[in-house]
């Protein structure tokens, strides 16, 4: 298990000889998140304690019960870390996808604003000119 743990989470290292405390980083989609896992003497995940950075806590906001459930049902640390990475991957894609979509929309809006000239017929910055009733104007002029 030690070798596979090191392969999956190379930045998460044991902090004591009994290997009941691990601290370091978990990587998801190119981002590293700090965490600390404190295992009981029997190494059972259901009694473990997970401490994490505010960034990781923010991403997992609303997923506390899912993380707790995965801790309760994982037979060992390696299994839990794989489950946690899966939750983080899904959550990160959702939140980062919304941010990318918002950034793309802002970029498109600013590009369109650059193409618009003051007074020009552009629906993004000015109102479209209203249709005038030419027959009425002709009557007034007559």
UniProtKB/TrEMBL annotation:
Domain of life per record: Eukaryota
Transmembrane segments: none
InterPro entries documented for this protein: Fancl, FancL_WD-rpt_cont_dom
CDD domains noted in UniProt: ELF_FANCL
Region (Disordered): 97-142
Record's compositionally biased regions (Basic and acidic residues): 127-142
Domain Fanconi anemia complex subunit FancL WD-repeat containing: 3-88
PANTHER family assigned: E3 UBIQUITIN-PROTEIN LIGASE FANCL (PTHR13206:SF0), UBIQUITIN LIGASE PROTEIN PHF9 FANCONI ANEMIA GROUP L PROTEIN (PTHR13206)
UniProt-recorded name of the protein: Fanconi anemia complex subunit FancL WD-repeat containing domain-containing protein
Organism of origin: Felis catus
Source organism phylogeny: Eukaryota, Metazoa, Chordata, Craniata, Vertebrata
